[in-house]
Write a structure and sequence with these properties.
Dna Ligase, domain 1; 2 domains; globular; 309 residues; five-stranded antiparallel beta sheet; D-amino Acid Aminotransferase, Chain A, domain 1; 23% strand; single chain
Length: 309
């Protein structure tokens, strides 16, 4: 039987063709001993099997034939049609069963059989390449509860490979549409008090001796998606605060038992930094470990829960 699931800890960056960039790098970090929430990946093979089972490859190729890169309305129309085909096609039973088993195993590992929440995240096989950046083009769904919702959102991730933006980008970069596949990460959610992104070299001035940290309250999506003006910290590699700027942090995305909720942050909290010195030192240490692991500057998503990054 073909195995369509891999546990994140089984992965490394050499498995990008089957696991996609996001999953492969999460596996790399787990095996380097870094604090990454557990999860699994629904491999690119599962996506290909889904297309083949419903004869979608030929239909997609036909739908995109003769569409020019400049014809935005035609690309948009094709995107909607192809995405609907993928979402409406029944998931092959062997893929569905393996996803359900993996989800149950993950919930048991977390000791959370009831009300167990995951993130369902796209992981493209052409992601994080030196020659191209597909970052942010494919969908992520947060606060997903239950097997049925996981299966539904796996298909939503597959469909996001055919967004107008993704189709246009592949055309502009000369990628063959059906040669780019999509794996999907299913990862335990962290109900974070604060979260954000971190650059192991300062992207604003190119200084490799500085770490730039952007942070907001709640889930990191509020920072990643640009919903807020975050707190900003510039750290030395030794963990000293070089500069900090208080962000307005008007909104936070919280995790509830029904999914995620966007809410206003009270004025009193907006006037305080959402990270203290101890957390900033933890982040600096992790940034140094990640950069050492890869041998080059990296950008990292992080979350803070119960004093731990």
């Amino acid at each position: 039987m073909i195995n369509y699931i891999k546990i994140l800890s089984e992965l490394n960056k050499d498995l990008l063709p089957e696991a996609g960039g996001k999953a492969a790098n999460l596996g790399e970090l787990i095996n380097a001993g870094l604090p990454v929430p557990p999860g699994f990946v629904v491999t690119a093979g599962a996506y290909r099997t889904h297309l083949e089972a419903s004869g979608l490859q030929e239909r997609i190729a036909g739908r995109l034939e003769n569409i020019k890169e400049q014809d935005i309305p035609a690309i948009s129309e094709a995107s909607q049609v192809i995405s609907a085909w993928i979402e409406e096609a029944p998931m092959p039973i062997q893929v569905q069963e393996q996803v359900e088993i993996a989800y149950v195993n993950l919930s048991e590992k977390m000791g959370l059989a009831e009300n167990f929440s995951v993130a369902v995240r796209s992981s493209a096989t052409a992601e994080d390449l030196p020659s191209a950046s597909f970052a942010g083009q494919h969908d992520t769904f947060l606060g997903i509860y239950g097997k049925e919702a996981v299966l539904f959102n796996v298909k939503k991730c597959w469909a996001s490979l055919w967004s107008s933006q993704a189709i246009s980008y592949r055309m502009s970069m000369g990628f063959e549409h059906l040669k780019v596949d999509l794996a999907v990460v299913v990862q335990a959610m962290i109900a974070s008090e604060s979260a954000g992104v971190m650059f192991t070299a300062n992207p604003l001035n190119g200084n490799r001796d500085e770490i730039l940290i952007s942070a907001g309250y709640g889930l990191g999506e509020v920072v990643v998606s640009g919903l807020i003006n975050p707190d900003t910290f510039i750290m030395t590699k030794e963990g000293r605060i070089k500069e900090k700027v208080l962000g307005s942090k008007e909104l936070r995305i919280g995790l509830t038992e029904k999914g995620t909720i966007t809410e206003e942050v009270p004025q009193s909290e907006r006037k305080s930094y959402c990270l203290g010195v101890d957390e900033l030192v933890q982040l600096t240490n992790l940034a140094n470990q990640v950069e050492k692991q890869y041998g080059r500057p990296m950008d990292i998503e992080w979350a803070l829960s119960k004093d731990k990054i």
